[in-house]
Amino acid sequence: MFAYKLGDNFSVLQAGEWMNRTEVGEHYELPPFNVKTLYRAVETLGRNRERIVRELQDRVLKLLDLETTDILMDWTSIVYYGDMASLAKYGYSRDHRPDKKQVTLGVAQLAPPVNVPMAMTVEAGNMNDEEHFRSTYNQVRNVLDDSSLIVFDKGANDKRNLESSVLDRNDYLTSKKLNIADDKVFRSFDRNDWESIDEGVYALKRMFPSRVNYYFFSEKLKDEHLASRRRKAERLLAEARMIQDSLDDGKRLPKRFRINDPLVDVRYDYQTKLASMDEQEALRLLLDQVIDGREGCFCLTSSRDMDAEEALRIYRSKDAVEKLFHSLKSEIEVRPLRVWSDDAVYGVLLLGFIAQLMISLTRFFVAPVKSVSTKFISNSLQNLTLTVVRSEGGRKQRHYSNFDALNRAILAGFLAETDRCRPGNGAPGRFRASQNDVSNSRTQ
Fold this sequence. Notes:
- By secondary structure, the chain is of the alpha+beta class.
- It is built from 15 helices and twelve strands.
- Strand 7 (201-207) and strand 8 form a beta hairpin.
- Helix 4 (36-47) packs across helix 13.
- It is globular and about 95 Å long.
- The model is unreliable at 425-444 (pLDDT under 50).
């Protein structure tokens, strides 16, 4: 199933049809089976997900042999089609499908340059990041060394989560939700007093008994915020103009401004301010409302004392998790979910997680593919072709073809690692032949 996940990656039914092909069954030493066996296998994986993830963590950490285990954490949502899984709920959709039920997915990933996922949690579709943080953190806490740094965004920033990481003797770095006290700091901004850490980026560091706040002002970010605020003001002005035009013409309001429920009796009484001002005045009024003075400002907070420039660099590395989510959704293709039970939801997402883990390990160990996307790695491996030729006497010949630079590099790295890990450290065996003698993912 894992090989199929990195290959054609269609439904469980089609995976069963592929595995029941004679050549595939012989290669993987699988007897013929009913496709319902795979449905049960997916649920079995889901029921045993915690044990499987723990085993993976132990093996991967032993393989990597890292000095530090700094972790990036983030959460997303995945669309669910169906009505059988109790995990599926309506909630804030990161897939931009608020009309569909969803589940939420949490991932913990070793920080750059390793970038290997170490934990995956699945929760109900309406769970917020503050609550989901706890299950993701609990799954990864045993692999963290003392003073490991945990990086996450402001959505999971609450007192309980920060305290739990500190009690475990770990450090945290997260974005802070701005308050009135922070506004006073930003109002006192002076380019001569703040540290310039990048072109147009200034920082101010403030120490507190239990934390350090890193205040930042970015001129580029301010321009982006102001442009966004202006677009919002222009959108509000356009809506007000539509309402005013309807009132002037004696027409009903456009449908988007009405309640269209036959059981609800509504009387509309709208009055805009456009009758007494021109559009420029109206736009200035709206801009005064939507601009709050925080444009270009943000604050990071941490239990670790470091340079402001380092804190910003580490926090920006959290983009690596966003890339992992994109890979999971668009290249490993774990979405949309079309399964029938909670255990099946866990199972199919676990398969996708393991596939992503193997791709990430490949990037870490094989230098030529370090910056290659999941899509191109998967396509290169899938292009490998095994042709089985049967002679009249029943003898079989295997011919391997369609090698390219990527899959050659990956197979060479795999052979070297296999030889290194084998008892005897390089004794002759099944994988001691040339690259052309390695089985692959497509069967003709």
